[in-house]
């Protein structure tokens, strides 16, 4: 049966990069490798301009009715003066909450062809391939109570609460272990069990849950050490699983090891396997409308979508191989350009991926 994809191009470079991702989906569809129907809707600043709401009810309904959502990016200086509740970014948060997307998959990989792009030595990062699994709907970003009060002394007192239910830890660990089973079967659970009771429980639950996965090699690391190890010797990691806040920080750190923000996809999944897929970068207002943005992060997000939500792992592998081939051909957008390579625009890069896919 045909799977439904909701396409949310968003703002800035969003429409430009999403157009290239759609070319790739169309090419796979034309040859019968996948069976999808695509529908478009408004989100972010584009939706605000249309109806005063960054996440119109119709968009959320359409997202709920789809198997997967492909998102470009939202936001830009035009909407910065708006109240927080109207900002384009609210659209994203609303989609995450509305779809119950509790598992954020943030791969950090570096195609060997781009090893020069990193600020780290190429032998440290070349061929890097880490998957960070971040809990996305719990932890200190959502815990109650929270707030800032003024004490009797007149001093301000601010607080947030780090809390997890056992079930929340279990389900995110399961996602990590399931993914690791399809990769190197090694998972490092990152916590601060020496200081925070919640994460001591996190570690216990991680161990208990792993009993169902005898083939998984589970290790544990305190978050401070994990951040050091990510920069010192990142290739020691396969899958990492961690809390919302630790994952927020570690995944951005891991992304920067690769030095190419225009190359990295992401996925956010719910319990039903429904997912939202988007590049990790933003709407890049500084280069929007010029046809020079790198569409590869979005194209690789499509690969993740096919693998994790649409049961089309073979097509996903082919997209990743096509991207690698295009890099072998020496094609580069401005953000990953280096000496001796051929600089191309957004559309030319998308066309090259489609050609490589067909070859
Ligand atoms: P950004 O990721 O949009 O841009 C950072 C730098 O990277 C810019 O110099 C940009 O030109 C470059 N860049 C990003 N993606 C690129 C691509 N595909 N190809 C070539 N170069 C690329 O982050 P920034 O500038 O902090 O935020 C811009 C807007 O995007 C803000 O309104 C922000 O709120 C929003 N944003 C949205 C996100 C989302 O939709 N998930 C995530 C991050 C930021
Ligand atoms: Mg972040």
From TrEMBL:
The record marks 141, 192 as: Important for catalysis. Its EC number is 1.1.1.85. Keywords: Amino-acid biosynthesis, Branched-chain amino acid biosynthesis, Cytoplasm, Leucine biosynthesis, Magnesium, Manganese, Metal-binding, NAD, Oxidoreductase. InterPro entries: IsoCit/isopropylmalate_DH_CS (IPR019818), IsoPropMal-DH-like_dom (IPR024084), Isopropylmalate_DH (IPR004429). Mg(2+) binds at residues 224, 248, 252. NAD(+) binds at residues 76-89, 282-294. Its cofactor is Mn(2+); Mg(2+). SUPFAM superfamilies: Isocitrate/Isopropylmalate dehydrogenase-like. It catalyses: (2R,3S)-3-isopropylmalate + NAD(+) = 4-methyl-2-oxopentanoate + CO2 + NADH. Belongs to the isocitrate and isopropylmalate dehydrogenases family. LeuB type 1 subfamily. HAMAP family: LeuB_type1. Homodimer. This is 3-isopropylmalate dehydrogenase. It comes from Marichromatium gracile (Chromatium gracile). The lineage of its organism: Bacteria, Pseudomonadati, Pseudomonadota, Gammaproteobacteria, Chromatiales. The gene is leuB.
């Amino acid at each position: 049966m045909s799977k439904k994809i909701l396409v949310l191009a968003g703002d800035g470079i969003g429409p430009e990069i999403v157009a290239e991702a759609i070319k790739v989906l169309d090419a796979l569809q034309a040859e019968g490798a996948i069976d999808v129907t695509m529908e478009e809707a408004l989100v972010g600043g584009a939706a605000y301009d249309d109806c005063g709401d960054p996440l119109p009810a119709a968009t959320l309904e359409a997202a709920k009715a789809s198997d997967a959502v492909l998102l470009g990016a939202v936001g830009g200086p035009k909407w910065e003066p708006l109240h927080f509740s109207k900002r384009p970014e609210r659209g994203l948060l609303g989609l995450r909450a509305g779809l119950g997307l509790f598992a954020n998959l943030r791969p950090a990989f570096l195609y060997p062809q781009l090893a020069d792009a990193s600020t780290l030595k190429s032998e440290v990062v070349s061929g890097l391939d880490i998957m960070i699994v971040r809990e996305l709907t719990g932890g200190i970003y959502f815990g109650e109570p929270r707030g800032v009060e003024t004490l009797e002394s007149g001093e301000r007192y601010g607080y947030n609460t780090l809390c997890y239910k056992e079930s929340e830890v279990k389900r995110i660990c399961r996602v990590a272990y399931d993914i690791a089973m399809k990769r190197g079967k090694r998972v490092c659970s990152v916590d601060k069990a020496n200081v925070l009771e919640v994460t001591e429980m996190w570690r216990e639950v991680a161990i208990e849950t792993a009993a169902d996965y005898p083939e998984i090699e589970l290790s544990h690391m305190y978050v401070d050490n994990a951040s050091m190890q990510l920069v010192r010797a990142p290739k020691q990691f396969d899958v990492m699983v961690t809390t919302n806040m630790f994952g927020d920080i570690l995944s951005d750190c891991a992304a920067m090891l690769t030095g190419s923000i225009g190359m990295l996809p992401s996925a956010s999944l719910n319990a039903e396997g429904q997912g939202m897929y988007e590049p990790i970068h933003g709407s890049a207002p500084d280069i929007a409308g010029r046809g020079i943005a790198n569409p590869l992060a979005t194209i690789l997000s499509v690969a993740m979508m096919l693998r994790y939500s649409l049961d089309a792992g073979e097509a996903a592998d082919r997209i990743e191989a096509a991207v690698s081939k295009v890099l072998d051909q020496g094609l580069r957008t401005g953000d990953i350009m280096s000496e001796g390579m051929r600089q191309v625009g957004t559309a030319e890069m998308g066309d090259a991926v489609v050609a490589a896919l067909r070859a």
